[in-house]
């Protein structure tokens, strides 16, 4: 009898723990930033993955620089490969790099 009760309590405890952990996960995953920004970031990241690793690695393309330098760097890359990005893509890539890869 006694063992059963202890076992039962153990199961209840474990279930509570699982539910608590589950809820915690949900809280962590809920987005805190606005969705539009995230989508722009994903688009810029795709542009960079598609256009910036033909001549060097992505690691190099992502090497952090002072925020104000990114337009120059991206323009230099476009100079190496005219037509690499159109105006809109250039803006998106620069904005992404300035926000995420500046030191
Ligand atoms: C046509 C070839 C080419 C393409 C495409 C290209 N790059 Fe480059 N990149 C280079 C060369 C060559 C260098 C080294 C000389 C220099 O820094 O100007 C370089 C250097 C860099 C550096 C400096 C890395 C360091 O070691 O500090 C960064 C940052 C960079 N590229 C970012 C980019 C980004 C972002 C893109 C995409 C928009 C891109 N590159 C696309 C040729 C290219």
Automatic annotation (TrEMBL):
List, in alphabetical order, the Gene Ontology terms for molecular function in this entry: electron transfer activity; heme binding
Q: Which residues form a coiled coil?
A: none
> Which domain of life does this protein belong to?
Bacteria
Name under which the protein is recorded: Cytochrome c domain-containing protein
Species of provenance: Desulfuribacillus alkaliarsenatis
């Amino acid at each position: 009898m006694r063992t059963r009760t202890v076992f039962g309590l153990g199961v209840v405890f474990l279930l509570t723990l699982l539910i608590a952990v589950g809820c915690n996960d949900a809280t962590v995953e809920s987005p805190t930033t606005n969705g539009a920004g995230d989508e722009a970031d994903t688009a810029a990241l795709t542009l960079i993955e598609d256009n910036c690793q033909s001549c060097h690695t992505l690691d190099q393309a992502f090497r952090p620089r002072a925020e104000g330098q990114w337009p120059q760097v991206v323009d230099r890359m476009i100079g190496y490969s005219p037509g690499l990005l159109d105006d809109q893509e250039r803006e998106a890539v620069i904005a992404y790099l300035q926000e995420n890869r500046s030191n």
